[in-house]
TrEMBL record:
UniProt keywords, alphabetically: Transferase
Organism: Amblyomma maculatum (Gulf Coast tick)
The keyword Transferase is annotated on this UniProt entry: yes
PANTHER family: SULFOTRANSFERASE SULT
GO MF, any single term: sulfotransferase activity
Protein name: Sulfotransferase domain-containing protein
Entry keyword annotation includes Transferase: yes
Length: 324
């Protein structure tokens, strides 16, 4: 039977929690504790609208923080790079340091402190829409496995997708792009000059990290290598067999984790155990929109962009990028 729950019945898939339009696979208490989290001095957040380069940014930041050392395993990554809306504010409060906390929240909803740092990465709306389509189709919780790009495109324009409207999210952070504790980057710029991007991120994280990279060209090379799309796709295999994290027993988790972190890690494990129909990291390309958008969809996206970004110069971010 054809299933397109996302378009057919959004109420089955999403709900609004304290103003955040979000999938039901995100636990209520995790979302609420994330919204209520009070950032501490030195906290580092990686923020984006979905499918704008978050996973790549996490990989870069992790490698900078850990001096490109191989992780001790998937549990370490889940604890040091927690997805707060899935794992809850406790993951930020009680997890190991150094760490970087991932969220997809708009600036207005985001836990904020002038003493915390925020790396925001965005991507042009055309490629974001295409990538988000595959993501939504691949993840069982959305019930969209037979959904078409045409159907998803309509939802994207309406902001009836996970985490709501693309433009609202991006514009909310764009307004703060010059704040001293915000580093605002585009996926396309990072792709165009990855080395410069990594150095910029390191400087933002801390002078000590930047110095290490400038003193040790081999370390920089290792980070570039570790965070390449080829390397990352190798580490996120398409498989219906759960990887090692999912195979950890309850008693093993209980021994290794403080109680406050257990619930969030269990949520990640449950989510990872659900079958997927494709890769989490797909192509990592700029310009894949050309393979999906019809002339009419281009016209309508341009219209939506004009309406949503009126009075701003947001689209100048992609001046040199081949988009309509």
């Amino acid at each position: 039977r054809r299933k397109t729950s996302v378009s057919g019945n959004a109420a089955e898939v999403f709900r609004t929690i304290d103003g955040v339009f979000i999938g039901k696979h995100f636990p209520d208490d995790a979302v609420r504790s994330t919204l209520a989290y009070k950032p501490r001095p030195g906290d580092l957040f990686i923020v984006s609208y979905p499918k704008c380069g978050t996973r790549w940014m996490q990989s870069i930041v992790y490698n900078i923080l850990m001096d490109a050392e191989e992780s001790s395993g998937p549990l370490d990554i889940v604890l040091r790079l927690p997805f707060l809306e899935l794992q809850g504010g406790e993951a930020a409060m009680y997890g190991p340091r150094p760490a970087a906390f991932k969220t997809h929240l708009s600036f207005q909803k985001h836990p904020y402190s002038p003493d915390a740092k925020y790396i925001y990465i965005t991507r042009n709306p055309y490629d974001c829409c295409v990538s988000f389509y595959y993501h939504t189709r691949n993840i069982q919780s959305y019930g969209f496995e037979n959904g078409t790009f045409d159907e998803f495109f309509e939802l994207f324009l309406q902001g009836r997708v996970d985490f709501g409207d693309y433009f609202e999210n991006v514009l909310s952070w764009y307004a703060h792009r010059n704040d001293p504790n915000v580093l605002f980057l585009t996926y396309e710029d990072l792709k165009r000059d990855t080395v410069q991007g990594i150095l910029k991120i390191a400087v933002f994280i801390g002078e000590d990290k930047a110095k290490k990279l400038s003193d040790d060209p081999e370390l920089l090379k290792r980070i570039v290598r570790n965070t390449s799309v080829e390397n990352m796709t190798k580490k996120v295999p398409v498989s219906h067999q759960p990887p090692k994290l999912e195979d950890m027993s309850e008693s093993d988790l209980g021994k290794r984790l403080r109680p406050e972190l257990l619930k969030g890690v269990r949520t990640v494990i449950d989510f990872a155990r659900k079958p997927r129909t494709g890769e989490f990291i797909r192509k990592g390309q700029v310009g894949d929109w050309r393979n999906h958008f019809s002339p009419e969809q281009i016209r309508r996206m341009r219209e939506r962009i004009a309406e949503a970004t009126a009075g701003t110069d947001l689209m100048s971010l992609w001046k040199g990028v081949d988009i309509p």
